[in-house]
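Issue 218. Parser rejects a valid record. Input:
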Amino acid sequence: MTSLRIAIVLGSTRPGRKADAIGRWALQRASNRAHELDVTFELVDIADYALSHLDEPIPAIMGRYSHAHTMAWAKTIASFDGFVFVTPEYNHSTSGALKNAIDFLFAEWNDKACGFVSYGVQGGQRAAEHLRLIAGELKLADVRSQVALTLGVDTDDSGVIAEGRQLQAFDTMLNELAGWARALRSLRETRDGR
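Output the parser choked on:
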């Protein structure tokens, strides 16, 4: 059986965003455990897909995409077994850019697992809570453990300076995510007759 593939999804397109540094930190920390978990981790930046405001004429649940940017996004997301969403908290929720990117697709998210690395002046936990509601609708199983980075405490101008409990929370989240992603991949393979 091949290694799991888990995307670390940068959930902000804002100029000067913290998502770059936090995503790189998450990728480095996760990659240190890739062999142990039998997982390949990859950074996926929603900004690279130039997704306009949702412009597909047919609802995503139908799976009939008409735009090249949607088809490229769908191909990328379909190739992963799970996701770590790196999300800022904007006005008690996730970023509009991440919500929009999620809304472009449906089946590509189904029967996979996700975890969260949120950040904000209060740790971004409300952004992760909103994403949990969205994940349920997409048949995307979210793990309980998460990382909530407080700007100015767990980060500085050079990036993430998290210690102790944040590192432990990240490792716990990865353990849960790898386990769930593996179980759900088995479910998808059985369902799809592979």
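Fixed in the parser; the record now loads. The chain has one domain: 4-193.
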